[in-house]
Design a protein that fits this description.
There is one protein chain. With about 100 residues, the protein is of the alpha+beta class. It has one domain: uncharacterized conserved protein from methanopyrus kandleri fold like, CATH 3.30.1860.10. Helices cover about 25% and strands about 45% of the residues. Strands 5-1-2-6-8-7 form a six-stranded mixed β-sheet. The longest helix has 10 residues. The protein starts with a strand and ends with a strand.
């Protein structure tokens, strides 16, 4: 299982943008909502499952999109299932760790 990520520093915290690799570059539309899963936001590098787990555990701010990404995050206890939203059948979740 592969993921696409971009890592940055946000107010001295690790910010992780992560999505399922197969969603990279797609545009998801539902009603008036439009989510662009852009290479500039999510596409810095492709990583494997093990590295994704490590990053999800260590990041303070996480923007995540995709069934595999969300499933892994919830499995690790990062985020809450009730906070997961969907656009066009694609789940997304934003987590801020305190």
């Amino acid at each position: 299982m592969e993921f696409s990520v971009k890592i940055s520093d946000f107010q001295k915290n690790l910010m992780l943008n992560i999505c399922d690799k197969d969603l990279l570059g797609k545009n998801i539309i539902q009603d008036q909502l439009n989510m662009n899963i852009s290479k500039s936001y999510y596409g810095e590098k492709i990583i494997e499952h093990k590295e994704a787990k490590k990053l999800l555990k260590s990041a303070s701010v996480i923007n995540m999109v995709g069934k595999n990404t969300i499933s892994l995050s919830l499995e690790l206890g990062v985020g809450s299932e009730k906070s997961v939203k969907t656009i066009g059948g694609v789940p997304f979740l934003i987590v801020f760790k305190m």
